């Protein structure tokens, strides 16, 4: 469940990012693919950030289709930290973009 929640948070952060460049995929996999194409491949965001996003999606898919073993506090913390890094990176992108438009 924890991974599913954070995957949703990352999904909507990435979706907002894509919508800001007039891209609006209809499926979660499309969000990931476009995030990689539009932002990771062009160097805006790191490959590590993309890997975290892919991992969250994979864990969410696993959680949706079968029972997972109990989540340890350490796993929950690591998952939260990855999601926070992802959302913070997107927030910094928007803040930087806003600064550039104000100049």
Explain what this protein looks like in three dimensions:
78% of the residues lie in helices and 0% in strands. The protein is an all-alpha fold. It has a single domain, classed as Four Helix Bundle (Hemerythrin (Met), subunit A). Helix 1 crosses helix 3. The termini are far apart.
Could you list some keywords that capture this structure?
globular; Four Helix Bundle (Hemerythrin (Met), subunit A); 0% strand; mainly alpha; 103 residues
Short recap of the structure:
With 103 residues, this protein is mainly alpha-helical.
* Major sheet details: none
Mean pLDDT: 86
Gyration radius, rounded? 14 Å
Order of helices and strands: HHHH
What proportion strand?
A: under 5%
Number of helices: 4
| Classification by helices and strands | mainly alpha
The count of domains is 1
CATH topology (fold) name = Four Helix Bundle (Hemerythrin (Met), subunit A)
Total number of beta strands? 0
- Amount of helix: over 70%
């Amino acid at each position: 469940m924890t991974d599913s929640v954070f995957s949703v948070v990352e999904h909507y952060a990435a979706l907002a990012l894509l919508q800001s460049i007039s891209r609006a995929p209809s499926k979660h996999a499309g969000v990931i693919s476009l995030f990689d194409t539009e932002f990771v491949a062009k160097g805006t965001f790191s490959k590590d950030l993309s890997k975290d996003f892919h991992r969250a999606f994979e864990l969410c898919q696993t959680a949706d289709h079968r029972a997972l073993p109990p989540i340890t506090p350490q796993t929950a913390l690591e998952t939260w930290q990855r999601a926070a890094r992802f959302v913070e990176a997107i927030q910094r992108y928007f803040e930087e973009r806003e600064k550039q438009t104000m100049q």
